[in-house]
């Protein structure tokens, strides 16, 4: 997470330089997934996330993020869609069965959960 801003900035710079796609809309037709604390602000601590805000190069893009709050928040000052976070299988079994609707749009995300000495079980997630 601490390297996310730099990695994304490098990726966007490459696309700007090598391909026409970003430049035709300044990124407005590009989608990014930010599935961690405070979404597109890319920091797990809210005070730092708010101070840093969303990187300028992402502000015109569509952001899929697991971070959502009622009311204004610096980390939601861009077009965004709130997506559900990871729910462990043992917790999912306790949830009601999802609506059985026919769907024509599907999304898949393959991510990972970091193991941290303070979160060795992986069961705790802030917000």
Key terms for this structure?
single chain, alpha/beta, 3 helices, golgi apparatus, transmembrane, 127 residues
What does this structure look like?
- There is one protein chain.
- With 127 residues, this protein is of the alpha/beta class.
- The protein has a domain at 2-87.
- It is 20% helix and 9% strand.
- It has helices at residues 4-18, 46-52, 89-92, and strands spanning 31-34, 62-65, 80-82.
- The protein has a 3-stranded parallel beta sheet with strand order 1-2-3, with no helix packed on it.
- Helix 2 (46-52) links the parallel strand 1 (31-34) and strand 2.
- The longest helix is centred in the N-terminal third of the chain and has 15 residues, at 4-18.
- It is globular, with a radius of gyration of 16 Å.
- The protein starts with a helix and ends in a 35-residue tail after the last helix.
- This is Exostosin GT47 domain-containing protein.
- It is a single-pass type II membrane protein.
- It holds the Pfam family Exostosin_GT47.
* Secondary structural class: alpha/beta
Strand arrangement in the largest pleated sheet: 1-2-3
Oligomeric state: single chain
Helix content: 10-25%
Overall 3D shape: globular
Q: What is the CA-atom radius of gyration, in angstroms?
A: 16 Å
Number of DSSP strands?
3
Range of strand content:
5-15%
Question: What low-confidence regions span 5 or more consecutive residues with pLDDT below 50?
Answer: none
Order of helices and strands: HEHEEH
How would a crystallographer describe the biggest sheet?
3 strands, parallel
User: Average pLDDT, to the nearest integer?
Assistant: 77
What is the terminal separation in angstroms? 16 Å
Number of alpha- plus pi-helical segments:
3
GO biological process, one term: glucuronoxylan biosynthetic process
Family: Belongs to the glycosyltransferase 47 family.
GO molecular function, one term: glycosyltransferase activity
Membrane topology: Single-pass type II membrane protein
């Amino acid at each position: 997470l601490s390297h996310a801003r730099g990695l994304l900035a490098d990726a966007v710079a490459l696309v700007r330089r090598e391909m026409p796609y970003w430049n035709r809309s300044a990124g407005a037709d590009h989608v990014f997934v930010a599935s961690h604390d405070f979404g597109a602000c890319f920091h797990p601590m809210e005070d730092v996330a708010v101070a840093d805000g969303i990187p300028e190069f992402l502000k015109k893009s569509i952001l899929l993020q697991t971070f959502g709050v009622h009311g204004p928040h610096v980390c939601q000052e861009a077009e965004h869609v709130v997506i559900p976070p990871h729910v462990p299988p043992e917790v999912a079994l306790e949830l009601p069965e999802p609506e059985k609707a026919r769907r024509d749009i599907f999304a898949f995300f393959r991510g990972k959960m970091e193991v941290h000495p303070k979160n060795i079980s992986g069961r705790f997630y802030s917000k």
